[in-house]
Amino acid sequence: SQTTRCPSCGTLFKVVADQLRISDGWVRCGSCQQVFDASAHLQATAPAPLLPDMALDRLRRRQRPCGARSL
């Protein structure tokens, strides 16, 4: 799916290629009801992160309990 922005109210929403192909790119904003060419207002998508978001404390090396031996 892709993301488009309503030029009237600025609402972002997802559209799929089949939807745009069938309607020649025209969609109706669900917020303000404005009809616009979604393909002319497609937004760049951010690349997927290489690593999932993780709490910093999970990134730290775990300390061994006292008396534990390493292998």
Note down, in words, how this protein is organized.
By secondary structure, the protein is α+β, with helices and mostly antiparallel strands. Helices cover 14% and strands 23% of the residues. It has 2 helices and 5 strands, in the order E-E-H-E-E-E-H. The strands form 2 sheets. Strands 2-1-5 form a 3-stranded antiparallel β-sheet. The chain has a two-stranded antiparallel ribbon with strand order 3-4. The longest helix is centred in the N-terminal third of the chain and has 6 residues, at 17-22. The termini are far apart.
SSE blueprint and pairings:
Elements lengths: L1 E4 L6 E4 L1 H6 L3 E3 L6 E3 L4 E2 L12 H4 L12
Helix content: 10-25%
Structural class: alpha+beta
- Neighbour order of strands in the largest sheet: 2-1-5
List how many beta strands DSSP finds: 5
Mean pLDDT: 84
Overall geometric form: rod-shaped
Query: Can you tell me the residue ranges where pLDDT is under 50 for at least 5 consecutive residues?
Result: none
**What string, H for helix and E for strand, traces the elements in order?**
EEHEEEH
Strand coverage percent: 15-25%
Counting H and I runs of at least 4 residues, what is the number of helices? 2
Largest sheet: 3 strands, antiparallel
Head-to-tail CA distance between termini: 49 Å
Give Rg in angstroms: 23 Å
